[in-house]
Amino acid sequence: MNKEKSLATENILGYAVTGLPREQCLDRIETWLNNDAQQKTFLCANPHSLVQAVGDPLFQQALHDADLVTPDGTGIVLASKILGGAIRERITGSDIFWGLSDRLNEAGGKSYFFLGASEETLAKIKTKLATDYPEIIFAGFYSPPYKPEFSEDDSKRMIEAVNRAKPDVLWIGMTAPKQEKWLNQHLDELDVGFIGAIGAVFDFYVGNVKRSHPFFQKIGLEWLPRLLQEPRRLFKRNFVSSPLFLLLVLKQKIFG
Q1: Is the pLDDT of residue 71 over 80?
Q2: Smaller CB count within 10 Å for the chain: N or C?
Q3: For the whole model, what pTM was predicted?
């Protein structure tokens, strides 16, 4: 494991989840973008995704290989407390996207490419980014076909679109674990310094899906209004994956 990574992480079900607060995560990403010639990747970990990883070696490998994995969910914070860790702050894909965009807009000169979502959503992102962050260069976007798995030709077109644009930052907005697995499988083919897989943040950013009120985010119940908005999609995540995750954490606590 990378020494820099290991010094600031906690073992949550065998995965190195960062214990750094939000601002220090952003400091690290900025340093990577400005000073590091090596490619770096950012993923989010939440109870649902870590339960999904059970029995999925490709997803497991993607989580292990990421340079920064943030605690995206109150369940991860709770797991840290149970395991005697020090994580007390959930850090979502939205936190990283908005926080980094604020910083890069102030500094100027960096470029973004967006991979995922529909062309309509991506066009909205382009328009909104120009207003919100005029000093960030919009390098381009690509809407991949909507299917469970991409063919070799699909992936080739996606990679070519990204590499033609030569962005500083690639944001991937697809469902988990598809986005994480695709990124990890094609990382060596992507000519980008920093890549973040941020899922639904594309939809949050343009308002296709509303984030819960800050009150619910603060008290750890952001999932509740979203469950009421999308009960069919989120029922399993909250009432199947979350209890399973807690059981796995208790098993780690007891048996190590």
Answers
A1: yes
A2: C
A3: 0.90
